[in-house]
Design a protein that fits this description.
single chain, binds thymidine-5'-diphosphate
Length: 172
């Protein structure tokens, strides 16, 4: 059976990721499944809640977060991405492993994770690597301006200054 394509959209604050995803939804209609990370499957969404909304999340470091993101991703792949591709549809994910690379290794400065990243990627993703990653690269200041104008709510990964610069370098 013909498999669909697995496409990942990445981008920092104010990069226009949501706008582009809305347009892609209009374009692809029923031919694509739209999903997101963290989350994207029932169990993955529960892990998302712990990562983003637990009052204790601020005490955790990049190691803990990386482990939770990989756990969420493993379930997301098994229960949403792979069945979607097998059904012949394209799967378009708002973020994937490139976010862990940029946010946890670079943003949260868990540098030792860099060395084991390929091992984790191989173990959790294996042959199911995305067909295409699209990174919406927007100037950090411009992204912050847009975000301020939209009045978007912040989560604890939305840091300022140095974090954003490191994250941007991580993506590149
Ligand atoms: P979300 O509200 O979905 O933000 P956005 O609109 O920016 O995608 O929150 C997801 C947050 O989780 C976002 O700040 C990026 C962060 N994140 C990581 O730190 N590591 C990861 O592996 C993933 C998938 C997301």
């Amino acid at each position: 059976m013909k498999k669909g394509k697995f496409i990942v959209i990445e981008g920092g604050d104010g990069s226009g990721k949501s706008t582009q995803i809305t347009k892609l939804k209009e374009y692809f209609g029923d031919n694509a499944i739209f999903t997101r990370e963290p989350g994207g499957s029932p169990y993955g969404e529960e892990i998302r809640e712990i990562i983003l909304n637990s009052p204790n999340a601020k005490q955790a470091d990049g190691k803990t977060h990386a482990a939770l993101f990989w756990a969420s991703r493993a379930d997301h792949l098994k229960n949403t991405i792979l069945p979607g591709l097998e059904s012949g549809k394209h799967v378009i994910s708002d973020r994937f492993d490139s976010s862990t690379y940029a946010y946890q290794i670079h943003g949260q400065q868990e540098h030792p994770l860099k060395e084991i990243f390929p091992v984790f990627r191989n173990f959790f993703v294996g042959d199911n690597v995305p067909d295409l990653y699209i990174y919406l690269d927007v100037d950090i200041e411009e992204g912050l301006r847009r975000k301020a104008n939209e009045g978007v709510e912040e989560n604890h990964f939305d840091r300022k200054g140095g974090f954003l610069k490191r994250m941007h370098a991580g993506y590149l």
